[in-house]
Specification:
CATH superfamily of the largest domain: Dihydropteroate synthase-like
Structural class: alpha/beta
Strand order of the largest sheet: 13-12-11-10-9-8-15-14
CATH architecture of the largest domain: Alpha-Beta Barrel
Oligomer: single chain
Number of domains: 2
Number of strands: 15
CATH class of the largest domain: Alpha Beta
Order of helices and strands: EEHHEHEHEHHEEEHEHEHEHEHEHEHHEH
CATH topology of the largest domain: TIM Barrel
Length: about 400
């Protein structure tokens, strides 16, 4: 399997594959502790694609890569000196990359900047534990966390109208907690394709009474909104996370989240719900989403939102074709290079229905399949309708992932 990691200061795409459990394999054959420390960096191999490099910097990169015992592929136009910006693909072990990084730090033509970005990205990729700070809650990932979906709407694509009354919504939230939900995500406005926005007043009318009746829950409550006023009123009543499909693009949202010390889910969406599925296209799906998320992360931090409060979501189904959703899931490990916990929301979505040719209420098996693939590729939080079924499936997947080879 090949995993793409992207850094966007120079629009650099990373492609990394790590040989898992190499230390355990050496222990089994009796390699000494010192020997394992020396050899483990040689047992991790990365194939890395970089984009939009200055030509002179790319030529120096190839030179230093070869000197480190690696290899580097450049396009033909680099040999003919007929392009100003070029992509490159690097091949090497972790140890070879360490040597390359040190050499590039001394090179001109953005060599030092490239080295620092490569190093940061590789470190992000190796990060496998997160502690999310959401007001009074600390959410440790792993284990995989389940975010139970609570749509307080008449028109959501899957369960619109089922939990529209306060009593029904509160009862549904409590049942999801009993079944094992780690977070409850309350949404008062449908974001299904081609839906139209509702007023702040209507969204508040739907969400706030539910929040007020769940103030005794011992788990974090997230509110799915992109409106700053709705977010603030929800945070006043005990919400801990804002799940923002507009990724802080509404004026004032970042400041509200910062001021209330809340966590935030930053999601990618091309367009907005009413037009996001009107012929969405991508030249490189993962690269474009990564570039967007990096920019929004930097924006969040510039507004004073701390790193341990940021969760990222590539936005399955939000301005994506079926093939785009599949690419995201297959290549989800790429997003680890950003260094933040990854949330995935595939539950009952239309791409599953299109593949299986089934209606919304027949998409459980497809949803579980996509989510197990997601956690094996780096997802730490799953946003789901069916909590109990996912909890069982995740237990099996986590046991498999814990096995030492």
């Amino acid at each position: 399997m090949v995993n793409f990691l992207i850094i966007n200061r120079f629009s650099i795409m990373f492609n990394a594959h790590v040989i898992n459990d190499v230390e355990e394999k050496m222990q089994k054959i009796g390699v000494s502790k010192d020997g394992i420390e020396i050899m483990k960096k040689k047992g991790r191999f990365y194939a890395i694609k970089l984009e939009n490099l200055p030509l002179k910097g790319a030529l120096l990169l190839k030179q230093e890569a070869l000197a480190a015992g690696m290899d580097c592929s450049l396009p033909w136009c680099a040999a003919t000196l007929k392009c100003e910006k070029v992509p490159a693909i690097l091949f090497g072990t972790q140890r070879q990359f360490e040597i390359l990084i040190e050499k590039m730090k001394m090179q001109p033509f953005k060599g030092k900047d490239m080295a620092e970005e490569i190093l940061k990205t590789l470190r992000n990729y190796e990060k496998d534990e997160f502690l999310i700070s959401a007001r009074d809650f600390k959410i440790k990932v792993p284990p995989v966390r389940l975010m139970g979906i609570l749509n307080v709407t008449p028109d959501s694509f899957s369960d619109g109208g089922k939990y529209f009354s306060v009593d029904a919504a509160v009862s549904r939230a409590r049942r999801m907690v009993e079944k094992g939900a780690d977070i409850i995500d309350i949404g008062g406005e449908s974001s299904r394709p081609f839906s139209s926005p509702i007023s702040e007043e209507e969204e508040l009318h739907r969400v706030i009474p539910v929040l007020e009746n769940l103030d005794d829950l011992k788990i974090p409550i997230s509110v799915d909104t992109y409106k700053p006023r709705v977010a603030e009123e929800a945070l006043k009543r005990g919400a801990s996370i804002i799940n923002d499909i507009f990724a802080l693009r509404k004026d004032g949202m970042a400041e509200v989240i910062r001021d209330y010390d809340a966590a935030v889910v930053i999601m990618h969406m091309k367009g907005e719900p009413k037009n996001m599925q009107v012929n969405p296209t991508y030249e490189d799906t993962v690269s474009e989403i990564m570039r967007f998320l990096r920019e929004r992360i930097n924006f969040a931090k510039s507004k004073g939102i701390e790193e341990d409060k940021i969760i990222i979501d590539p936005g399955i189904g939000f301005g994506k074709r079926v093939e785009d959703n599949l690419v995201i899931l297959k290549d989800l490990n790429s997003f680890r290079s950003l260094g933040y916990p990854i949330l995935i929301g595939t539950s009952r979505k239309s791409f599953i229905g299109k593949i299986l040719d089934v209606d919304t209420d027949q998409r459980l098996e497809g949803t579980i399949a996509t989510n197990i693939i997601a956690i094996m590729n780096g997802a730490g939080i799953l946003r789901v309708h069916d909590v109990k079924e996912h909890l069982r499936a995740i237990k099996i997947a986590e046991e498999i992932m814990r096995v030492k080879l």
